[in-house]
Design goal:
Elements: H1 5-33, H2 37-42, E1 48-50, E2 53-55, H3 57-73, H4 77-93, H5 95-115, H6 122-137, H7 139-144, H8 149-160, H9 164-179, H10 192-202, E3 207-210, H11 216-227, H12 229-235, E4 240-244, H13 258-268, E5 276-282, H14 284-290, E6 301-307, H15 311-324, E7 330-336, H16 346-349, E8 358-362, H17 371-376, E9 382-389, H18 391-401, H19 410-421, H20 423-443, E10 449-456, E11 471-476, E12 485-487, H21 489-503, H22 508-515, H23 518-529, H24 532-538, H25 543-562, H26 564-569
Parallel strand pairs: 3-4, 4-5, 5-6, 6-7, 7-8, 8-9, 9-10
Antiparallel strand pairs: 1-2, 10-11, 11-12
């Protein structure tokens, strides 16, 4: 027994170890199969396991939605009901994830709708902006992180570039979203306010700010917002701003403007760090109210797009230029002054602006002599002339008026119309080639580029970026001793090719109706219909036809400036 004891002890030890391993293995398998109840509730991982591939709750919901749609399309009601039960089970098991997914889809759809712009009705976009504002203002969602703040804020930024009604709704939503309490333990930088500031301060487009309506409610709302710390702090950080006129037009009858003057004075002193200002669609009332009160110590770029018809508006523009002229480096004066009879064009009354390197003005007609640029803009490097006209609308009037009376072909008729209607462009082109290039080259030593931009504003102000406009370009000849400018073949040919392609897009119906001449087409229609009212209705020119005809007229205007025959006539060399 004494000799056999060691062997028996070893056997018992081996048996005990084996039993322990079997017990541990069974417990591990049982734990993987079931696990403690509290651990199962706290487990974070895939919501649904299908086969050997794990999927999240969002993926499961998307998959079940697709299965329901496929089953309904295949008329398989049993499969659709089964997928619906599974979907309901997933939503009940993980309500937070399902709610988050629903809110995300709602915000994405509203943002996509606002991104489409004019393609969506204004009322629908207003409702979408209000919906995004409500999600951002809901404190419970902010506390639980259920709302995609970046997506909602992006949609509201798109709404700022829409009509005044949509922009006003977005401004209110952004204001209240910035004031909502952030999640507990979250800094201001990571909340709505910080996210909004980063998106607006870092985006390439400027912040669009729509002026208030001329009523007491809008005035009081803007006043409270401008007095709040949130708005003051945000406005003080802005670098570029676009001010939008909501449609003041003439002064409203019976409107007390003194309170709005105080509001504009408060607004004008809010942009301490502003470097770029774009004034969009301003008319006489908005210019007289806002421009005299803008104090922008760091302003470097100024764009004014609007109409000036009164002496008060002209004085408002000049006051803005007098205060900031010595510091501005880029200036665009796209101001309609055709009906300004009381005073001169603002360009003729400005003080010298020594730092302006890029200047954009409306011409033809040119309200100042060629020597004016060297005297008032000594550092000028790039000069651009804007020629914005209602090409499409004018062409539509010509087509409708001469439909019955003229037997000429449409291109010939539009060519004669261009020579008569845009006579100022013909005269300006001759003067530019005869004297302008030579005098600018001799008197402006820093000037390197001269551009002419032609745009159609028949359906509103042309807001096309400068790099995407239809432009003719002339560059200074540096290799030659002759002081002159030489046409840029690549840019000029590209502009002409684009207009030729657009003018060729005439609808087939219009082409067939105009193939035999307007008069013969009208006779054929009258004989077929026998009704004078129907014939008048069919003579209406569509928007597509007007745009194509307007492109043809724009091409004719460009040829006034860029036609090699004109350059040869004045003794200019062409590539």
């Amino acid at each position: 027994l004494a000799a056999a004891a060691p062997f028996a002890t070893r056997r018992l030890l081996r048996a005990a170890k084996a039993a322990t391993r079997r017990q541990a293995g069974g417990a591990e398998k049982s734990g993987r199969a079931r696990g403690p109840r509290r651990n199962r509730r706290r487990q974070v991982g895939p919501a649904v396991v299908k086969g050997a591939t794990a999927e999240t709750v969002e993926e499961a919901i998307y998959r079940l939605d697709n299965e329901i749609n496929d089953a309904l399309e295949a008329d398989d009601l049993r499969a659709a009901a089964k997928a619906q039960r599974e979907l309901r089970k997933v939503q009940l098991d993980r309500p937070s994830a399902a709610c988050r997914l629903h809110i995300q889809e709602d915000c994405r759809s509203a943002t996509a709708m606002l991104r489409l712009g004019d393609a969506i009705d204004v009322d629908v976009r207003v409702k979408a902006a209000r919906k995004l504002g409500r999600w951002l203002r809901w404190r419970r969602t902010a506390a639980k992180g259920l709302v995609p703040e970046a997506t909602a804020l992006e949609g509201l930024l798109w709404a700022l570039r829409s009509e005044p009604e949509v922009a006003w709704t977005a401004q209110c939503a952004l204001y209240y979203a910035a004031r909502v309490a952030d999640r507990a333990g979250t800094s201001v930088r990571d909340g709505n306010r910080g996210t909004l500031s980063r998106m607006l301060l870092n985006e390439p487009n400027s912040f669009c700010f729509c002026l208030p309506q001329l009523n007491a409610r809008s005035r009081d709302s803007y006043g409270r917002a401008l007095r709040s710390n949130v708005v003051r702090d945000f406005f003080s950080q802005l670098r570029t701003v676009t001010l939008v006129d909501p449609g003041y037009g003439d002064y409203g009858a019976g409107v007390e403007l003194a309170p709005f003057v105080r509001l504009c004075r408060q607004l004008g002193r809010s942009f301490e760090s502003l470097e770029g200002l774009k004034i969009l669609g301003f008319e006489d009332c908005a210019m007289s109210l806002v421009l005299p009160h803008l104090m922008l110590p760091k302003l470097k770029s100024l764009e004014i797009i609007g109409a000036c018809h009164t002496a008060e508006a002209q004085h408002a523009i000049l006051s803005l230029l007098y205060r900031h002229g010595p510091y501005i480096e880029a200036l665009e004066l796209n101001v309609w002054t055709e009906y300004l009879c009381e005073v001169d064009d603002p360009l003729a009354d400005i003080d010298p602006m020594p730092k302006v390197k890029r200047l954009t003005i409306r011409a033809p007609p040119l309200s100042v002599p060629w020597e004016h640029f060297a005297r008032y803009f000594p550092s000028l490097e790039e000069l651009t002339f804007l020629y914005d006209q209602d090409f499409a609308l004018n062409s539509m009037e010509v087509l409708e008026a001469e439909y019955e009376e003229s037997d000429m072909d449409t291109p010939e008729m539009l060519e004669r119309h261009a020579l008569w209607r845009y006579r100022d462009a013909v005269v300006f082109a001759r003067d530019l080639h005869a004297r302008g290039f030579r005098r600018l080259a001799r008197q402006c030593p820093s000037l390197r580029t001269i551009r002419l931009t032609v745009a159609d504003n028949s359906f509103g102000y042309d807001l096309t970026p400068a790099e995407e406009r239809l432009t003719l370009c002339w560059r200074r000849e540096t290799s030659s001793s002759r002081q002159s400018f030489r046409r840029d073949r690549e840019i000029n040919n590209a502009a002409r090719a684009a207009l030729e392609e657009t003018s060729a897009r005439v609808p087939e119906a219009a082409g067939r109706s105009l193939a035999g001449g307007p008069a013969r087409a009208l006779d054929a229609r009258s004989e077929s219909d026998g009704d004078e009212q129907d014939a008048d209705a069919e003579r209406q020119v569509s928007k597509e036809e007007a745009q194509a005809a307007g492109a043809g007229v724009m091409l004719q205007v460009i040829r006034f400036f860029d036609d090699p025959s004109i350059e040869a006539e004045f003794g200019l060399r062409t590539p």
